[in-house]
Amino acid sequence: MIRETLAYRVVQASYTAWLFAQTPREDLVRIVIDNTDFNGRTALYDLSLLLEGEKTCPRINNTESSVFREFESFLKQNLDVRLEQLSSHSAPRTEPARDEISEVA
Predict the structure, then answer these.
(1) Closest Cα to residue 43, out of 66, 27, 9, 12?
(2) What's the pLDDT score for residue 102?
(3) 37 φ, ψ to 5°?
(4) What is the pTM assigned to this prediction?
(5) With contact defined as beta carbons under 8 Å apart, do 63 and 40 qualify?
(6) Which terminus in the chain has less CB density within 10 A, N or C?
(7) If we measure between CA atoms, which residue out of 95, 99, 16, 90 comes closest to residue 46?
(8) What's the Rg (C-alpha) of the chain?
(9) Is the CB of residue 23 less than 8 Å from the CB of residue 13?
């Protein structure tokens, strides 16, 4: 939706970016990789490593979106983030997320 003065109108989005605070599920990544329509219009950014203090951001971006390219440029230049290709076979987490409570024996 776009706001024009006091009214709103619905527009067709050319591109979509999904920003994930946790590593996206493998089946979702596989759908975006395998579906040529999604692959050319949808970008996925896994921000989970950034939220854990690392300087790495796995992503899929095969779009021609200048906005997404500018976002990636910002991550690289201003936050010193290394962008990596996100695959559907990303390694599963082996340690609990920060918001999980560890058991005390």
Answers:
(1) 66
(2) 40
(3) -70, -45
(4) 0.74
(5) yes
(6) C
(7) 90
(8) 17
(9) no
Cβ neighbours, 10 Å, residue 16? 13
Q: Is the distance from CB of 58 to CB of 49 less than 8 angstroms? A: yes
Residue 44 region by backbone torsions, left for phi larger than 0, else alpha for psi between -120 and 50, else beta = beta
- Rounded Cα–Cα distance for residues 4 and 53 (Å): 39
At 37-91, the pLDDT tens digits run 889 999 999 999 999 999 999 999 999 999 999 999 999 999 999 999 998 765 4
Neighbours of 96 (CB within 10 A): 10
Tokens for 2, please give them.
Answer: 């776009």
Q: How many helices (H) and strands (E) does the chain have?
A: 4, 6
Instruction: Confirm if 75 and 49 have CB atoms less than 8 A apart.
Output: no
Please list the residues that pair with 59 across neighbouring strands: 45, 85
